[in-house]
Amino acid sequence: MTRHLITSAIPYINGIKHLGNLIGSQLPADLYARYQRARGNEVLFLCATDEHGTPAELAAARAGKPVAQYCAEMHAVQAEIARGFRLSFDHFGRSSSPQNHALTQHFAGKLAENGLIAEVTESQVYSKADGRFLPDRYIEGTCPNCGYDRARGDQCENCTKQLDPTDLIDPRSAISGSTDLEVRETKHLYLRQSKLKDELDAWIDSKTDWPVLTTSIAKKWLHDGEGLRDRGITRDLDWGIPVRKGTEEWPGMEGKVFYVWFDAPIEYIACAAEWAEAGGLPEADWQRWWRTDKGADDVRYTQFMGKDNVPFHTLSFPATIIGSGEPWKLVDHLKSFNYLNYDGGQFSTSQGRGIFMDQALDILPPDYWRWWLLSHAPESSDAEFTWENFQASVNKDLADVLGNFVSRITKFCRSKFGETVPDGGTFGPEEEALIADLTTRTARYAEMMEAMEVRKSAQELRAIWAAGNEYLQTVAPWSTFKTDPQAAAAQTRLALNLVRFYAVLSAPFVPDAAAAMLAGMKSEDASWPDDVPAALAALPPGHGFEVPEVLFAKITDENREAWAERFSGHRD
RNA sequence: GGCGUGGUAGCUCAGUUGGUUAGAGCGAACGACUCAUAAUCGUUAGGUCGGUGGUUCAAGUCCACCUCACGCCA
Question: Domain A387-535 is in which class?
Answer without folding.
Answer: mainly alpha
